[in-house]
Every structure is written in C-alpha cells, then in structure tokens.
Request: fold
Amino acid sequence: MKAPKYSIIPKPQRYDTVDASFTVTSETQVLCVPEFVEAGKFLTDYLKTKADASDGAIKFNKDASVPKEGYTLRIDENGVVITASDCAGAFYGAVTLKIMLMQSKKESGKATLLGADIYDYPRFSYRGGMIDESRHFFGAETIKQTLDNMALLKLNKFHWHLSDDQGFRIESEKYPLLNFVGSKRKYEHLQGKDLPLSKICKHEEEENEYFHYYTKNEIREIVEYAKKMHIDIIPEIDLPGHTSCMIAAYPELVCGGEGCEVVTENGVFKNVLCPGKEHTYEFVENLLSEVVELFPYKYFHIGGDEAQLGHKVWKNDCPDCQKAIEDNNIKTAAELQSVFMNRISDFLKSKGKTCIAWNDGITDIANDNFVCHYWILRNPLWVKKESKKRSFILSPSTHFYFDMSYSCMPLKKTYKFNEAKFGITDDSSVLGVEFEAWSEWITDKETLEFSIYPRMFALAEVAWTKEKYKNFKDFYKRLDFFKLYMKSKNINYSRLEKKKFGIKNVSCYHLGVKGNEYKYNETLKG
Ligand code: ACM
Ligand code: ZN
Reply:
C-alpha cells in the first residue's frame, strides 16, 4: 500500500511518497547554508531547535538548478533535505515542511514524518491579496495575521488599499490635513446604494467619529514583518478618482476648488482630482515621494478606476481641464485621465517603480510602464490586444472579489478560474492573480475572515499550481486539515462555502454587516 500524502495547499507540482519515515525530536537540528538561515528559523520557531547547530538532520542546501521561488523537499530515513536556488524557495520549502509537521503523528514529544519527495515551484510570480482599509480599518494585528496566513499559502504580494473616498489611511508629513481631515469621517458605517446598512445601523444612532490611519513607523514595521515571509507590500493611492478624502483636506485639488466632506456612503463620486491644474501634479508627486520611501518594492498601484463622474466635470465644466484636452491634442476625458496617469507613472518610473492600474483606467494612450489590473469584465478581444502590450494581474470581480457573498461566488467558482475565458490565450502576459477584499460591507475582523477564508486557499492554488494538476474534489479534501488549523486559530472562516443560499432583501453581491447573515452557527453548518 502506498504511504499517504499530507494535505498541502497549494498543491505541489510533483509530490511522490517515499517508503520511509523520519522522526523529529526536540533534539533535531536544522542546518542551513548561511543564505537560508532565515528560512530555517521559520521552522525552528516551530521545532524549538537552533538554526546554527553543528550537525543535524534537517538540511537546507543551495542548488542553482531549482526554479525561482521553487524548492525540492526529500524526507527519508536519513532526514530531511530542502534545496532551493533562492531565499524565497528555501522559505517555501520550510512552509511545506511546517505544514507536514503540523499533520504528523506525535507521541511523547516526537513527530514522525512520512517519506516524501517533492519538486515544487510557482505557476505565477505574482500571487496576491488586497485589503481595503479605507472603507473600514482593521489595524496592524489583523493585517499581520492575514500576512501569516498568506505566507502559509505561498502568497507573496500584499496590495494595501490605503486611500479611497471614505478615508486616507497613511501618515503624510507634507500634507498633514490628509490625516487630520482626510483620515476622519462622521460615521463608521457606510450607507448608500445597495447597502442594507441603513436598515441595520442608522447613522443617527452612531456617536463616534471614525478616525484611523497608520503612522509611518507602523507601516515600516508591517513592511518588515511581511518581508521576513517573502511578501512584498504594494500600496495603492487611488487616483484621480476615489479621492474625496484628499479633496476634503485640500479642496484646491478638485476642478473649481469647491471641496467636499469625507464620504460616509458607498458608491462612485464626482470628487475627482483636476488634471488641468499644475498644482495637482505637484501635490501628487510630493505625496507619492513620501509613500514610495516606505515600500521598497518594484510595484506601486495608482488606481485609475471609476473616475467617470469626474470625467463629465472635466469635459463640461472645468476650463483648466478643457484647455488640457486641447493642449494635449486629445478628444476625450478618458484620454485626459491617461495624460495624467502617464505623467504620474513617468514620475514613479524615475523612482524605480512600475505602476499598476485598474483596467478601466487604461486607454489606448496609456504608456508602457503600466501593468493592467483586470477587474471589470471587458471584451476578450480588448484583453487579447492589450495583453500583447503589457502584463496583467487578474482579479476578475466574478471570481476574486471576496467581499461578494458565497451564494454569488462559491468556493468552487474561485477555484475553477481559468484565464482563457477572459481572452488570455498566452500565459506569458499574466503576472498572476489577486483576491480583493473591499470593505464597504466588511466592517470588522470577523467579517473579513468570513469573506476571505477559505476562498484564499482556492486563490492560492490557482496562483501556484499548474492548471493540469488542479482538481476541486481533491482540493476540497485537502482543505479539511486547514479548517482544523483555522479553528485552532479561532478564525471565523465560512462554513458555507459550497452552499447556494440567498438572503432576502440583501444584494447578491455582498456579505452582511458583521457577518450577521452568514456568520457560522450550528444550524447552518454545511
Ligand atoms: C474596483 O473595484 N473599483 C477596482
Ligand atoms: Zn479640472
């Protein structure tokens, strides 16, 4: 009989069993080539042994032939050997071994590992997740816990949505009103179109102003924390739309200069930066210079989505914008947005950054320094054409918008994602995939957990495992172990991930406040 396999998500590209076993004790040493000591420490925290011992039975070796971020892992009667060509690969080898150790049989302080021979590497280099902290703010501890779970799933990009109409969430020393005005709003809960909140939580019943942002030191600490787990943090300052919080603080940024309040509703607004004024560029460049300093990575997200109501103002009401359209010899306000974004992207390029923008903000005149972040469905022919020009990050709202209800987006739907359906026929243009946790309705940690778990597991397998090795039934079985793991961590993961169930009078598209409607309880157990 073949030895059983451990449940590993994302599924390794190749995993054979070996007819042997190896027993790990508290004396077991972890031996690393110097480069991989950090990866070894990830294990030794768990094993409580030392990473610098003179001889040992768990070894981390370097082998240049292993693919980028990949690893080999062999367990037999002689011990455990992990090889990798880079630190990320060594780390992922450690992650897999840790997951195996968690599942191994334990007796009198000893853990018996079953023999295994694994050869593994990622399908995509960009394996991401986004949390929106503008609409609701979750704070450092929740972000760190999410990062821990992302690392366990070999996800490596955390996209941090730090600015939107409803609040600016990062300290600015140059523009302090971004915090003292822009990080505050009158009410915690958002109301408006599609929201059941007006029934559940009325603004007039709310007493406390909502005021949150991360200081630069807090940001630095989280960036460092993520770095240890090979997660790059990509900030998003959404421009030129979704900027009510900035305009509330600095009204001169909008066409006409008539300000607004930080928004307490959800939706799309006409408070959009004016690209006809030189001052806007000076402001944005100064602000981004501050933000760039905190995030030492290649990518920087500048939004670009849903500026359409502002476009009308640019075209019809703003002499500065009308002049800019004429001066640039363009015809449409959408192109004026590209003039604006191209200039910001040139600026960021001078700081060594590649820009990411949402796909509705990308026109035919968008420059080459943009990666297209695909969310809103477009004609597959457009996608095909655009993917010849630039790389894509795929987050179609039909599969990877985790704020949507499970009735609308069951786990299987996320798992079965296939980019060919969206017009991508050549994988080489795909950097990777990313889930989105928008927080209009996700108001707290509990609801966040409900929304993203276990869907994050499905996303991770899409991101890592080759399409030909994926199988939902098999994935679902492997998920059992991780459910126990989440239970042990007190994570409010959804137990309803396969059910089609609807809640009357609540939009299909979103979850309920505080997970009320969908919160786990015994009678709904599925
Ligand atoms: C988006 O959902 N507005 C990117
Ligand atoms: Zn204007």
In short: Residues 126-523 form a domain with the TIM Barrel fold (CATH 3.20.20.80).
